[in-house]
Design brief:
156 residues; alpha+beta; two-stranded antiparallel ribbon; 4 helices; globular
Length: 156
Amino acid sequence: MARQKGVHPVASNRRARHDYFIEETYECGLALHGTEVKSIRQGHVNLKESFAHVKDGEVLVESMHISPYEQGNIFNTDPMRPKKLLLHKAEIRKLQQLVQRKGYTLIPLQLYLKDGRVKLELGVCMGKQLHDKRAAAADQAAKMEAARAVRNQHAE
C-alpha cells in the first residue's frame, strides 16, 4: 500500500486557541502502538483537556484519548495512557526551560498525518485571563464587521 502524501488533519484542540496565548509551536512525532495508529487514521482521537509535561528528559502527553481499535484484540492499549513525544534533546531542554517560567504550559494543538506518519503540533502556551478572552472576542467581532462592510460595499 502506498503512503499518503501531504498533510491530513485528524484532530485539533480549538479550545486551546481560546484559552491560551500560543508563544511557539513544535512539530513532533509520537511513540504509538499499531492499533493506536489505526484508530488515529480512522479519526478516533480526542485532544480536549490534554496537556504535555517534561519528565526525566522525556516529553509526555497526558489525557489524550485514543479510542480502542474495533478490530483489535489483545493488542489494544489503555486509551488514556501517557504517550511519549519524539523530540531532539536540545528541543526538550529548551521546552523544559520555557515551561519553568511562570504561567507557561505545553498544550497539544493539532494531530495530523504527514506523509503517512502521525505528527503532533505542540504549543508553548500562556493562560489567558478573562479580560484577555473578552478583548480577543471584541477584536474578532470588529474584524468580522469590517470584512462584512467591505463585502457589502463590493456587492453594491
